Amino acid sequence: MRALSWGLHALNLLAVLGLLFLCQQLLRGHEAGWAMAVLGLAGLLVMLQFSKRLQAWRYVTPGVLAVAVFIVLPMGFTLAIGFTNYSSAHLLSFTRATEVLLQQADSEGRGMDLSLWKLDDAKGSGTGPKYVATLVDDDEQPWRSETFALAEVAEGGNPVALLPDPSPSPAAPSASSVTQAAVSGAQRLSSRDVVALLPQLRHLVLRSPDARTWRLASLHRITDQKPRYVLKRDGPGAAQDPDHLVDLRDGSLITADHAAGVWRDAQGRALEPGFRTTVGWANYGRIFGDRQFLEPFGRVFAWTVSFATLNTLLTFALGLFFAVALSWPALKGRSAYRIALFLPYAVPAFISIPVFRGLFNENLGEINLVLDLLFGVRPGWFSDATLARAMVLTVNTWLGYPYMMILAMGLLKAIPEDLYEASALAGAGPLTNLFRITLPLVMRPMAPLLVASFAANFNNLTLIALLTEGAPDYLDTVVPVGATDLLASYTYRIAFNDGGQNYALACAISSIVFVIVALLAYVNLRFFGGAKTVRR
């Protein structure tokens, strides 16, 4: 008991240290709300550690935290995303999407080769180091900037006026001809030094005497760029309007559409990139209110329930059959049979499923070669919906029956032999023994495991992803869906593979799947009876 107590103390200490580190990282990421929540949780663990009244909760807290971290938080995060428009077209926040638009610039295609020089201490004045930019334009004309400080540029965005070099180089100079002599007493920065200064250089704006604006385009080149959009101001001294931009090319107004998560131009066209926003029940409305989404969802749901039910029954029936056969005392070499029948479960699924994919190949697979040799047929396992579903059921039954067989073998050994002897004296046959003795005594303890198997088959993404990838696909649907797609693979395809990577819609479907699985599990437990309280 003392060892357990010290172990809990050490576990709580590690948890507190981990939470404090997480709190620090959240504060660095400007997530003050989450940081306060994590800090409160760390304080709760410390209070449990030293409070005698809450001593009993020390043994419960690790399990509660595990449930909260690995179940409640992911499910809550999934539910929250389901009420947004989060997708590949709406990845950024509103602030970040606005910054991307403000960083867009127009250019006439002119450029200058750039060299940066750092002035020595004698040349520099002020707190920060001073720099000079020497340039050679496309007409081979050398230029030199005024002295500037990158710190000031980064904070205030002060432009630097470009002036012609008062002592120009000989005719037709090149970038390499701008030497140390061009900026007396200065040190030219290497590419490595320029990379270190990139965060400040991105804010650098240079202006030439012809009123052109130049910005950094690469490490050693600037181009004539001018902003495409600016934030709207109602007047010279008015504050900026964060929901409206002005297109500097024609002066038109760009408006933020928070309902759709996009910026729209004067003609109502959406600009890229979009931004994340809350859309309420819109994703669920698309699933159940839009026929283009509801019809494939209904097909997938019906097939998923059928697949999970049939596969659970088939694996249980086949596993029980082999378990009964291996329990026959007169069978010789039972150990060898047991090892052979257990092998499908010992081989990892990510190895055996691709093997079956090759065996069922319509052109080169061994199964079709044998069927063609014997019967002259080559079934389209991946192009016909019925055959594809039969193949999926066959492969998953083969992979799942050893688990049921092992469980049934253990339960059969717990059945008293006296029951079978009494049944034999009464003249009962094997089928009577199966339905009157074996099944009733095996079904009750197997019921929770069958429910777990049903839930696992309901969300069997690995099988579909490695065997058929949902094929054959339906051609009359907008969303990507196939005849063998389960709800899990259907959701995965929407979220990551096809259809624009709509994470919010996939999360909404995942939430529905969670509710469906929970309800079906509850109904199955009620159907099988479950564990009942015995009253005395």
Automatic annotation (TrEMBL):
Subunit (UniProt): The complex is composed of two ATP-binding proteins (MalK), two transmembrane proteins (MalG and MalF) and a solute-binding protein (MalE).
Single Gene Ontology BP annotation: maltodextrin transmembrane transport
Any one GO CC term of the record: maltose transport complex
NCBIfam families given in the database record: PRK10999.1
Organism lineage string: Bacteria, Pseudomonadati, Pseudomonadota, Betaproteobacteria, Burkholderiales
Gene3D superfamilies in alphabetical order: D-maltodextrin-binding protein, MBP, MalF N-terminal region-like, MetI-like
Protein name per Swiss-Prot or TrEMBL: Maltose/maltodextrin transport system permease protein
Main subcellular location: membrane
